[in-house]
């Protein structure tokens, strides 16, 4: 099957319209020159393009990396093998983000617990707390934290 540069031009132009991108905006974001984008859109010069050019344009336009290559070669909808690769990468990134979120939630729970203890100490009976008496030796726990304030937990809370 021959390459369909007209379909590529139409895809790029349509997507630019949807995203309200100028050729200059697309050039800056994709690292592809305005002249190259113009040549592709107007289909003026028929020559082989570096595959990275179409990949960069695809990604900048919010598509999978191989989208414009698929359009060029008449392979739409996207090949399942290509889609699987992108989904695997997305799954990996999602797993990483979930781990980070769990870490953040754990830290917030620890901070919240410490704030509760501090509020209790602040509003408790004067003299009940070693901290309020200024007794630094007896006011410190084994881990060096103020008495009554729990040390950071190592596992996630739930």
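-> sequence recovered:
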């Amino acid at each position: 099957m021959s390459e369909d540069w007209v379909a590529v031009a139409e895809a790029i132009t349509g997507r630019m319209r949807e995203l309200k991108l100028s050729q200059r905006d697309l050039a800056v974001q994709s690292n592809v020159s305005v002249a190259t984008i113009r040549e592709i859109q107007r289909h003026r010069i028929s020559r082989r393009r570096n595959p990275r050019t179409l990949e960069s344009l695809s990604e900048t336009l919010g598509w999978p990396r191989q989208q414009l290559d698929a359009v060029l070669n008449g392979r739409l909808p996207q090949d399942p093998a290509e889609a699987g690769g992108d989904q695997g990468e997305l799954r990996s990134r999602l797993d990483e983000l979930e781990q980070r979120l769990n870490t953040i939630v754990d830290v917030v729970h620890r901070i919240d617990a410490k704030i509760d203890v501090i509020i209790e100490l602040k509003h408790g009976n004067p003299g009940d707390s070693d901290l309020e008496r200024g007794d630094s030796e007896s006011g410190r726990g084994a881990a060096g934290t103020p008495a009554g304030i729990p040390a950071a937990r190592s596992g996630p809370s739930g």
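The domain at 5-72 is CATH 1.10.260.40 (434 Repressor (Amino-terminal Domain)).
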